[in-house]
Amino acid sequence: MDAQPRTGPDSSRPVIVMENATKRFGEATAVENLSFSVHEGEIFGFIGPSGSGKTTTIRLMNGAYRPTEGSVTVFGQPADQMKTHVRERIGYLPQLFILYPNLSVKENIDFSASLYGMSWFGRRARRREVLEFVELWEHRGKLARDISGGMQRRLALASSLIHDPSLIFLDEPTAGIDPILRAKFWDAFRELKAQGRSLFVTTQYVTEAEYCDHVAVLGHGHIIAVDTPENLRLRAFGGEIIEVRAAQIGHATRPLFSRLEGIRSIDTSVPGQAHLVVEDASTAMPAVMDLLRGAGMEIEGIEPYRPNFDEVFVKLMQQEEAAHV
Amino acid sequence: MFKPIIRVSSFISKEIREILRQPWLVVRLILGPFLILLLVGVGYTNQPRQLRAMFVVPASEPDVPAQIEAYATSLGPQLQYMGQTVSEEEALTRLRIGQVDLVVVFPERAYETVQSGSQAVLHLYHNEIDPTQAAYVDQLGRVYVAEINRRILMLFAQEAKEESATAKTDLQDARAAANSARAAAQAGNTEAARTELQRANSSMDRASALLGASALLLGGLGQGLGADPDTDAPAGGEPGEQATVDVRSAQAEADLDNLDAQLARVDGVPADVMVSPLTTETRTVATYTPAFVTFYAPGVLALILQHVAISIASLALVREKVFGAIELFRVSPVTAFEILLGKYGSYLVFVGILAAILTASMVYLLGVPLLGQLAWLALAMGLLIFASLGIGFAISATSGSDSQAVQFSMLVLLAAMFFSGFVFPLMAISVPVRYLGYLLPVTYSIPNLQNIMLKGIPPSWVYLVALGAMGVVMFAFSWWRYRRSLVRA
Fold this sequence. Notes:
By secondary structure, chain A is of the alpha/beta class. Chain A has helices at about 55-60, 85, 105-115, 120-135, 150-160, 180-195, 230-235, 255, 280-295, 310-325, and strands at about 15-25, 30-40, 45, 70-75, 75-80, 90-95, 165-170, 200-205, 215-220, 220-225, 240-245, 265, 275-280, 300-305. Chain B has helices at about 5-20, 25-45, 65-70, 90-95, 110-115, 130-185, 190-210, 215-225, 240-270, 270-275, 290-325, 325-330, 335-365, 375-400, 400-420, 430-435, 440-455, 460-485; strands at about 50-55, 80-85, 100-105, 125. Chain B has a 4-stranded mixed sheet with strand order 2-1-3-4, sandwiched between helices. In chain B, helix 6 runs antiparallel to helix 7 (about 190-210), helix 6 packs antiparallel against helix 9 (about 240-270) and helix 13 (about 335-365) packs across helix 14 (about 375-400).
């Protein structure tokens, strides 16, 4: 998709700032004390299990909800009092398909464009761009009710992009779609980021955090951690991980590993393999090799271990629960 | 500057497209109301209900059954003669099991009761629980009893006329005798004069017997002729007496002339005129007198337009609230005012087209006239639709679900049926409840459309202003409510 000419993003400039934002519905607290910033030109991932408060957070940011406490600003304005020209800079892909089934793909896009005041001439070229971007141009004449669920999701994405927003809220955009389409969606998000747009993406797929510049992990309405994916990984496990494999490794070798300088944790739950958490894997690996060889073991393999984000997420959640206990 | 216009127009085109994408909805909305109109036109006969009547006659009066049957079979099509019985219990049993609708019990010795100066009472029994039908039976009974009374009176009048003809002959005899008596008295033939006077007296006695009501006059006349029964003194004899007889005879002749003239007047009046001297003949100054169905057609049209407008508008906002599009509106720059304006515009166009199609169908297919100007009709219908849409949007803005909105719409339809003057006349509804009718657009629109279409006169400006005000108030209320839904929670 050809983006309109825009100045390069300033990654130091926040487009969204949440400060101790809390939202309550009567007695129930949906989210509490949320504080983080989303900067221009980044993909900000918001990860949490179902019911953790992701949609509430996104609605606080797009102005659909007013915070009970704290503040949410978007482009420097309170989110619930955004002026029209600020709203015109925002795109929103809701979690559910809420376009009109009796209108065609093209008509739905036109309707979304008109909501943002785009004239017929103004939207004509843009319509083709976004429909080609989501690969729906060939299906533009079909009624929305007659296209597949994946196509409906892409139509919704196109509708959120038709007015060329600079900040896009995507509420679980990949929920319920196949892995191939998910990959395509993330390709599209990366392309949108490359065009200088800021994206705020909520997801239940923890692995998608890898594609984000910053990630906030949400649990029970609280933010557990906010950082880059790499830093979250370090935070979850307390440092870098070295995976070492040798036939003799088992529970009996734990005292041996504990002699290592700077060792933070030892996992020998899998026989013949150990995961050692250290501050710096590159400097610790030679010491590990010396230690094992000194103990007469034959090393089958040693390398830095990069845990996937599922493991990071589970670890963070376990730490959060342990902290609460 | 054009962005608000673009946003409003987006809703207009979206709503119209959505409606047109549902062809069956369009067919239902257009064909359904027309079929209702057509069925009303074809099916409604406006014929009063025929009552199956059974008569209970007194066993003691053998002449009565034949008279009752003669009356019952000639009283009109609303009374179906189902026979007669002497057993009231049998008749009432048939009434209870629904074999007859009405039992008429004739009284015993009705003639003697009337002769004694009292009214004879006919008892009517029915088995209706519907107050309207019960009132109809009661009214029909009264009408038929009045008709029977009239016929009885006619018989009496006819007999009286026949008797008056006989009396007239007697009076003519009396006058001739009186003339002869005067002539004889003037000729000095006292004996002849007395004989003639006696003849005159005897003729007047017969007339007196026939015309009881004129007995006093005849008595006076008899005295004038010297035939006072209390004084048996003969008239005439002496010259002074002759002059007196002469004068009395002349006076008596004059009185007889007068009585004769009165009898002639009675004789000249037919018996039915005598019994029912006044009758009515109603004329209208209206240029067009519609048939029953034609009269109701504008009302049905107003009711249909109000219901369609309320129904589609009542779903307009709540539907988007339920399926979630309102979330997009909250985030986008569109305002509640722009959304409402767009929806109003689209529905005004759509229901306006529906109104035009229904009106054309009524005029060209059902033969309902359009005597007034088309512009008046368009204005009256436009305001009806505007006000009705306002009610629909108000319902939509306050409803939490589709089904709630539909229920509200049906309640408004029910209220319109009962309180708008469509079924019951507005004046028949007591004042506090009648005000409910004034909250409905159809209450103003039924007389407006009837005036324009059937009388050819302009609509009431007061009603038009009322409709416009109602539409504006409802728009403002819907806007206020919908803004609260859109506003950030």
